[in-house]
Amino acid sequence: MCRNIKPLFNFEPPATHDEIHDAALQFVRKVSGSTKPSKRNEEAFDRAVQAIAASVHELLHAMETTQPPKDREEEAAKARARSAQRFARPVPA
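-> structure tokens emitted (93 positions)
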């Protein structure tokens, strides 16, 4: 799956409409193989994004958990640390 789609469930503050839309857009781009559809396919592309965003919105509001919400800043810091470690370059001698 696409690395750019981030988990949206159980965060404080909750996922915004824009975050849900962006995840849906990224998914449709990945599935269609196109970042910008042709004029001929633009309507179908936009409908797919809206349908997926609506489904994700419904899913996120229907899901339940006993875990406390995750802190967005803390999770972002962890992701930055993982990225720094993953892409660290050795210092030339």
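The two ends are 38 Å apart (CA to CA).
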